[in-house]
């Protein structure tokens, strides 16, 4: 039986090394194109609407260079009591975020958009994460790692930030930065067998 032709790589509209690593882990071929869309952090809007909008606009911003290939846009935020925790501006900002998340359960929500010349699908995924109560020593030790930089909610669950977490309910890789289970389901539905799923 002849091998199937290789799948055309997805176009990932993100420069996030974490998202690239997850696609590599899943064995999904992809190329990276930086999105031509600037996210604007907004308070007072629904977090799900925000991440879905960002994911869609990231994907659409590079669709013109994709040809027939599907474009993947993703956006992830941390939400507690309706407040969206984006990326901290500095160590002080990171410390405040972690103090507020300490001992509580927050939601990590991601928007995911696939765009092709013929159709567009937009979905989202939520994961519950509970941080253990953090002492001043815990906070100081984590802040010195610098790992909080560029991370929504000021922690990285796949790194030293794992020590801050008490429990997680849902897709772990969503917390890392890409809702893998959702992506696999969409690829299985829309491209059955092409990327090895469905």
Explain what you see:
The protein is α/β, with parallel strands linked by helices. 32% of the residues lie in helices and 24% in strands. The chain is built from 6 helices and 7 strands; from the N terminus they run E-H-E-H-E-E-H-E-E-H-E-H-H. It has helices spanning 17-26, 47-62, 91-101, 136-145, 172-176, 180-190; strands spanning 10-12, 30-32, 71-80, 83-85, 105-115, 120-131, 165-169. Helix 1 (17-26) links the parallel strand 1 and strand 2 (30-32). The longest helix has 16 residues, at 47-62. It is elongated, with a radius of gyration of 18 Å.
What features would you highlight for this structure?
198 residues, Maf protein, seven-stranded mixed sheet, 7 strands, alpha/beta
Topology of helices and strands:
Layout (H helix, E strand, L loop, with lengths): L9 E3 L4 H10 L3 E3 L14 H16 L8 E10 L2 E3 L5 H11 L3 E11 L4 E12 L4 H10 L19 E5 L2 H5 L3 H11 L8
